[in-house]
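re: the backbone from monday

yeah here it is again, tokenized this time
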């Protein structure tokens, strides 16, 4: 299975990211930061910007993680004295930490829920939502599966809704094997789980036989290893493993940049977010600088790791919103 650093190295033009991918991280960061310092001097950036220090912490969605990890790695080359740490507890787990006040920002693969809004209000935490990219939640099977190419939303319901039976492929399509379906799903703290539950299952119970994990790499490995397995996760995780996984078309539409951006890949196209504490933005110059950098570069990083960038107007809107919070 390809690592994210390898994916970024092979998909993004630019020596900075290639250095981070194929060499010692600390050495690469030092080299890149020297270049960044020289460029800052040449363009007249202030000494304060070049020597910014501080700590920034975030957590949340494993789907958003590849974008955020790429941003953190590249940002380290620009501001080497700012330490940015990002955990991957799933969207729900990330919001729990955000509500508790232990993180500055929370990554999410779904919009914030009403109950989470209420808990943040009770905790006295004002926040701002920023969009980072678009994703197509991708249903996958092993490359060894030679019978599933296309399914309907109704097929997915039959597969994934718990009904007290042992699900077989032949139950979905009589021409498919009389073999038990092996399910892999994001865990219940995942925004991807929530999104699938809402748009496919209509909030019915997920099949109990499913293996659940907040780590999408566990799901990837599970589906790779069994021709009777099926799973779902963010589009970038499929792209990184498309040599061993097959994306299943939904209602005849395959997930790709064009169908995700247009919304034709329905109902599994969705935006990806980060939520940021307004108070932390006002008090922590390092957080503000990192978020500004993130919005300026999220489109490029999203494409580098396999997601779909937003229209430039969306990032400009986000930067204007951020500036108003300074």
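seq for it, each position gets an aa:
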């Amino acid at each position: 299975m390809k690592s994210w650093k390898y994916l970024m190295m092979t998909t993004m033009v630019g020596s900075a990211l290639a250095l981070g991918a194929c060499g010692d991280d600390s050495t690469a960061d030092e080299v890149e930061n020297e270049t960044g310092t020289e460029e800052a001097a040449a363009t007249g950036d202030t000494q304060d910007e070049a020597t910014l220090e501080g700590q920034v912490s975030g957590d949340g969605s494993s789907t958003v993680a590849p974008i955020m990890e790429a941003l953190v790695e590249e940002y380290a080359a620009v501001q080497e004295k700012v330490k940015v740490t990002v955990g991957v507890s799933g969207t729900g787990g990330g919001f729990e930490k955000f509500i508790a006040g232990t993180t500055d920002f929370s990554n999410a693969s779904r919009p914030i829920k009403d109950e989470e809004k209420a808990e943040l209000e009770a905790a006295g935490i004002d926040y701002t939502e920023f969009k980072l990219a678009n994703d197509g939640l991708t249903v996958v099977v092993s490359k060894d599966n030679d019978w599933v190419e296309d399914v309907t939303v109704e097929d997915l319901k039959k597969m994934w809704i718990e009904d007290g039976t042992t699900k077989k492929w032949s139950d979905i399509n009589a021409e498919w094997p009389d073999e038990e379906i092996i399910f892999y799903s994001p865990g219940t703290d995942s925004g991807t789980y929530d999104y699938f539950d809402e748009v496919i299952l209509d909030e019915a119970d997920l099949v109990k036989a499913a293996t659940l994990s907040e780590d999408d790499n566990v799901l990837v490995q599970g589906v790779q290893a069994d021709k009777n397995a099926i799973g779902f996760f963010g589009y970038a995780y499929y792209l990184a493993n498309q040599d061993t996984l097959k994306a299943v078309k939904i209602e005849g539409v395959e997930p790709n940049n064009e169908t995700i951006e247009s919304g034709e890949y329905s109902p599994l196209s969705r935006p990806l977010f980060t939520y940021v504490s307004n108070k932390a933005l006002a008090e922590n110059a390092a957080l503000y600088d990192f978020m500004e950098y993130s919005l300026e570069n999220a489109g490029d990083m999203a494409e580098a790791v396999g997601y779909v960038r937003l229209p430039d107007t969306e990032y400009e809107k986000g930067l204007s919103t951020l500036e108003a919070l300074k």
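The chain has two domains: 4-135+271-324, 138-267. Residues 4-135+271-324 form a domain with the D-Maltodextrin-Binding Protein; domain 2 fold (CATH 3.40.190.10).
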